[in-house]
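Bug report (template v2)

What were you trying to do?
Predict the complex of my protein with zinc ion.

What happened?
Run completed; filing so the output is reviewed.

Input:
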Amino acid sequence: MDKLRFRQAQPDKIFVFYAVEIFEQADSRNTFFAELLLPVPVPKLFTYRVPFDLNDKIQTGIRAIVPFGTRKILTGIVISIHESPPKEYEAKYILELLDEEPIVNNLQLKLFNWIADYYLCSAGEVMNAALPAGLKLSSESMVQLHPAFDEETTLFEFSQKEEILLKHLKHEPLPYSEISKLLNLKNLYSILKSLVSKEAVILYEEVKEKFKPKTEKRIRLTAEFTSNEVLEKVFETLAKKPKQEEIILKYLQEVHILQNPKSNFTGIGKKVLLGDELSESSLQTLVKNKIFEEFEIIVSRFEEEVQNLSEVKLSEAQLHAQAEIIKSFETHAAVLLHGITGSGKTEIYIDLIRQALQGGSQVLYLLPEIALTTQIVQRLKKIFGSAMGVYHSRFSDNERVEVWNGVLSGKFKFVVGVRSAIFLPFDNLGLIIVDEEHDTSYKQQEPAPRYHARDVALVIGHMHHAKVLMGSATPSVESYYQAHHEKYGYVQLTKRYGDAQLPEVVLADLSQERKSKTVKGDFSRTLLQSISDTLAQKEQVIIFQNRRGYSPMVNCQDCSWVPKCVNCAVSLTYHQYRNALICHYCGYREELPQQCPTCSSKRLLTVGYGTEKLEEELKLHYPDAVVQRMDYDTTRVKSGYDTIIEQFESGATDILVGTQMVTKGLDFDKVSLVGVFNADRMMHFPDFRSYERAFQLITQVSGRAGRREKPGKVVIQTSHTDHPVLNFILNHTQEEFYNTEITDRREHAYPPFSRLIEIMVKHIDKKVSRDAAYKLTEVLKATLTEVKVLGPGEPMVSKIRNHFLMTILIKIPRDSGQLHDIKQRIQQAINLTLTQKEFRTVRIVADVDPL
Ligand SMILES: [Zn+2]
Ligand SMILES: [Zn+2]
């Protein structure tokens, strides 16, 4: 391979690389080498040689196509250029450069390295997460007939399958994937090897640019027909062809070329020109006669929004908070805005965004995944018009590339986006807003990099010298603590917007009601009565239950058999609507059996309430009410979420049942009752953050109740009415909640008083997984004498997708000051374990600051 150079064989956006031998002439030109970042989990850069003809094009920050390994082709980013050849090996050539201008800037490259370092992964993995798929080229292995192959004269014999393949290849080259289907073969190695040795086929790689700009067909006058005199002559000759005349007249009406000759250059959309009345065939005649010409231009995929400069009016409380934020920014790079639900944080953001944009800097506004699809984006669009980009995972690849390019070109000075928006190519951020900073969807769980967008936003803020504003009604305990210990500024907003009152919170005592037999199903009389009252007043209800499906468990009444997933160590959830038992970890599904497979009993009971069962029972209790469900299952289709929201907003729905989707970022005027169906499960989850989670979820969903003049009501069903978390919520004593949590965390050395790194060991063989975990723990304990290494142990769900899991938890004191060094030793310990022969197929994943 050394002396081989791949050559671009086709122009345009498809690159085909054949192995052809070429000889570079030794001459006086400089020989350059480039260091490339490649999307592979290896923590280093790769050196490639720059072909002479690309010497003028090469620069840092652009994409390059390179061969990798024996056959693969990858797209990487040029990090640096130099003239020293690698010592141990001969560098391969860069095949092609894809960009004329950098698509990644130096600040981003610095960020990639920071994330890789902090979250224990490779910069290549970070780049892979950062670039939208549309900017990453993928190569496909292809097979074509050998140009010299002649089936008449060949001396070789072919097998039946080989014959079939050769017959198909006569028409066109085929990708491996199709050949595999065609021959019904999983492994193509031997058949391709045989055909190559018989000189019947050649193999090559084809690389395609995935991003396709959106184009529009347009019409304009050809250059010679744009002058007044020529046009007059045209009208004379067309006197008897009114249809053609009409088209030219309409064109002159729409495009003012006589006043502004340049406007002919962009012409007019074909559909706009013809409208409903004018004739397409007459236009074609005009095109044929070279009076008009058709052409294509690249247009945006995003509708151009007309900016509506209506001022946002801040209340006195908001103005005060805003002034405090600005003052706090003088001494702090980051500020926590702690504003109760309904206090109107968004108006403050809008005003600050406007100021930052006016000052000439860029703004990034981060929102949790779900909140983004809602009302707020539409509102911002109206205010900021087309200077605002939206970056969302539900967007297509092409749309994401357009936002990326829009930030590069300066079109989008302001982007609203989900966590991955932190990777966009900003070069001059002045303000970053992290709304709902406590939200767990800011953390990426799988695959690497397992980053937290709020924490990374603080780092980006530092790099850009930008201010970071974190906002929440229920801040994370960590942020609350930092804000009260001077690391962040702290601004409170304790008044609801428009003087709305806080909701009345009522606990429905399930154990008491069970004794007095007033519970129907799992519904307390308190909740049922409150729903009736609300519906009678023609107001709306939200019921929150953090479990989807019908029932989380099915149980045989005679032998206690419970259906379990075949791939994971969890019981299957019953989904009535699909009449199936489904695993929420791996998606495995099976039919609900007619009878118990162990004892043949027909008494199979569903146990517990998912959102589906709640929906069904509410319909029985309130036959006149319209009940809708909002969870993962009902929102999976693209417009599902928007439809449910629209119907609820318009009042068509009376009761909305949902998982934590209903707790986020929604404002409805007519909701006066919120029911929390089961508070106990949230609080008794075995995790040091379970109180915080329960507190946040219940407070957030309660905040949906009552707006404007009328206070709402919240009914929380529980069997533990004396639980401290519920009492903090009941009495609106947030501060006490945080102080109690912080005391608790300090005592047990949990964050923010320590940093955690969780290491997960996975293998399909339980014993191998255990052995590797014990071995790794031993190595870790030996090397990390100054910190606590806990475990190994089985996580709550100890098997997922047929892989047995073991975890090790490392607790690092906050002030240890050698985090970097500790992480390096952890990485070495992992590498050491993986080099042992028996553990080579084990997967070990480190998660820094796990949630
Ligand atoms: Zn049974
Ligand atoms: Zn499963």
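What did the reviewer find?
The radius of gyration is 32 Å. DSSP finds 26 helices and 37 strands in the chain.
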